[in-house]
What does this fold into?
Amino acid sequence: MIRHLLSAADLDAGTATEVLDTAARMDEAIADREVKKLPTLRGRTVVNLFYEDSTRTRISFEAAAKRLSADVINFSAKGSSVSKGESLKDTALTLQAMGADAVVIRHPASGAPYQLAGWVNGSVLNAGDGTHEHPTQALLDAYTMRSRLGRVDGLSVAIVGDVLHSRVARSNVLLLSALGAKVTLVGPPTLLPLGIEDALASGTEVRYDLDEVLPGVDVVMMLRVQRERMEDAYFPSAREYTRRYGLDGARLRALPEHAIVMHPGPMNRGMEISPEVADSPRSTIVEQVANGVSVRMAVLYLLLGGAK
Ligand code: ASP
Ligand code: CP
It folds into this structure.
């Protein structure tokens, strides 16, 4: 098993499948127990180091570590000595002194987890770095596809919207392609990185018309329009964006009957996804959050080499 999880590219098909299988076993093991805890990481310390806001990733890493009986230290940059100018390196060395076996990091700078991996002895898990990657999100998305549709290999997956700013899209393209899915990126040209077609794994497509793509997909993954990362106007108006790229009831009905709708959250309800779609039985949004705990348990377990 690898020591750090910094990018979805760290996972070949075999390793990714091992994570998904382990997550399924974690689910079974927990379901059978009255007390939802396993003793596997007893005596180990997991530090959650969050320099950027998070709801799902932060609480699910905490829940995952606690379900494995690890000690958990939650560090949020807000309210810490970061406001006094303390650097990432000095913060990391302080955490190292507390005996961290694993550090989970979310940071606004792409590449921050790579730097951290050079400063601490424990495993580093990337929980989202800038616009770069979010590998555990891709794993939980693949896990959700597998549990809803029975497989990832051979699925046709459309990832729609603000691809330019999306670390979720980047990690999913890498992981889903490795697992044999066909990925199509859909969005306005302004929100698709320049030259993306050349940079993509072979077989990945880029399309600009959502309505043409929908009837042929098994999975449609909607991305949040990340306004906090936008300095310019990338589309004429929110209304125009929704008209061309929003998933509403009419577009939901254009999907094949078995197809599922995903979104990593948080959602801009009414913009990239309508409330009718978000709350429909074909939406896996709430399941994705629950699956995030199982997948993060599996990753912590495999990286820290927990006892059986
Ligand atoms: N929560 C995801 C992320 O942190 C997606 C998003 O924020 O839109 O990358
Ligand atoms: N999907 C996701 O990463 O959500 P948070 O930003 O709330 O952690």
Q: What stands out?
A: The pocket of aspartic acid (ligand 1) is lined by residues 128, 134, 167-168, 224, 226, 264-265 (CB under 6 Å). The chain has two domains: 8-134+289-304, 135-285. The first helix runs from residue 13 to 31. The radius of gyration is 19 Å.
